[in-house]
Design goal:
Elements: E1 2-8, H1 13-24, E2 31-37, H2 43-55, E3 59-63, H3 69-80, E4 85-88, H4 99-110, E5 114-122, E6 138-141, H5 150-163, E7 171-174, H6 190-201, E8 204-216, H7 230-249, H8 254-275, H9 284-296, H10 305-310, H11 314-324, H12 328-351
Parallel strand pairs: 1-2, 1-4, 2-3, 5-8
Antiparallel strand pairs: 4-7, 5-7, 6-8
Length: 358
């Protein structure tokens, strides 16, 4: 049986019904559908959940007394899930009839702990926005098999990490690997924190192109209204730190830890670059204050714990501290930006080709 967990918070009634009906219309009938009412204030939304559960006995409604966010609501659903497999669907999205059957068939054939499929973007009337890119079939065995060295599987770890994406919605999980895991209770990027930790526990991950998850472009959703404000920046930062700590604690090859740390360092510096261009995003001053408080707000001579997680070398550590300095950082970043764009312009003049960004 597959447990389908759908967090709901004041979702427009039409989209909610469309979502739940698409789930229940699945050709795979052995479903447990858990609607987690995350303290909705819209009476029509609450009533719609009651009606839907009365029509189909496979639907259960779990009501939260206070709003926990999508991650917290999914945790509530996980705590009562009974299916061998678990899938997450957002309450304004849509899945095709063969969706769960294909994911389950792929999981059983590959003996996979996680199965991923592609996404297609849809308008609210389910009209496709654009043709999604091809999502090739693949199977990756992550845990070293008998007689197989860690080095032999390193390329597969890296390939999966780069393909698996950031969402938990277009995936099927064996419930066993989610045991002991939970979504962090912050508002943005919480999917990736759990997904990466589950990925580290998995022995096999499979990808299928035979079905696609329908992501409905809802202009009222949390993702649609997200911008690079202080809450978004802090949640992305906390997610990155959570992933780094999980990677360091996991029994994975050293080469994987090293590769992931390098990618995380690059991402970290990109976030820093954003914070020093305050006119591009709202709350620029507050975001800069966050970096100074979190990374430099320690007693003199102490090392911020989070910097240890990032795996900086001694030289890199001094470099990061310089960039984060309230005064020096404001002087250094414009110089770095000017040097970067001058180098790109000069290379274009000499060769007519752009220098890859990164």
């Amino acid at each position: 049986m597959i447990t389908v967990i759908i967090p709901v918070h004041d979702t427009p009634t039409g989209l909610l019904r469309q979502c739940v009906i698409s789930v229940c219309a699945s050709t795979h009938r052995a479903l447990e559908v858990i609607l987690v009412d995350d303290a909705s204030t819209d009476t029509e939304c609450r009533s719609a959940m009651t009606v839907l559960s009365s029509v189909d006995s496979r639907i259960r409604v779990l009501r939260n007394e206070r709003n926990l966010g999508a991650g917290g609501a999914r945790n509530q659903g996980l705590s009562i899930a009974t299916g061998e497999y678990v899938s997450f669907v957002d309450s304004d999205d849509w899945v095709p009839p063969e969706y769960f059957a294909v994911l389950l068939e792929t999981a059983q054939a590959a003996q996979a702990d996680i199965v991923c499929c592609g996404m297609k973007r849809l308008r609210e009337n389910l009209e496709q926005v654009h043709e999604p890119a091809e999502y090739p079939e693949a199977k990756y065995t992550l845990a070293p098999a008998e007689g197989r060295s860690d080095a032999a599987s390193s390329s597969e770890w890296i390939a999966v990490f780069r393909r698996i994406g950031e969402s938990t919605c277009n995936k099927l999980f064996r419930r066993e690997i989610l045991s002991g895991l939970s979504f962090p209770c912050w508002r943005y990027n919480e999917d990736l924190a759990l997904l990466f930790t589950a990925f580290l526990k998995s022995r096999c991950v499979a990808f299928t192109k035979r079905t696609r998850y329908g992501y409905v472009c809802n202009p009222r959703s949390a993702t649609a209204v997200m911008f690079m404000s202080l809450p978004v920046m802090t949640d992305y930062y906390k997610t990155a730190v959570t992933m780094l700590r999980a990677c360091q604690a996991a029994a994975v090859p050293t080469s994987i830890k090293s590769t992931f740390q390098k990618e995380a360092q690059s991402h970290f510096l990109s976030l820093l670059r954003v914070t020093y261009v305050p006119h591009r995003y709202a709350q620029g001053a507050e975001v800069r204050s966050f970096w100074h408080r979190e990374m430099l707000g320690r007693p003199a001579g102490s090392t911020p714990p989070d910097l240890d997680v990032w795996g900086w070398s001694g030289l890199q550590r001094r470099y990061v501290f310089l960039l984060l300095h309230p005064v020096m950082g404001r002087l250094v970043w414009p110089m770095m930006q000017a040097k970067y764009y001058a180098r790109r312009a000069w290379q274009i003049v000499l060769t007519g080709r752009r220098v890859p960004q990164g």
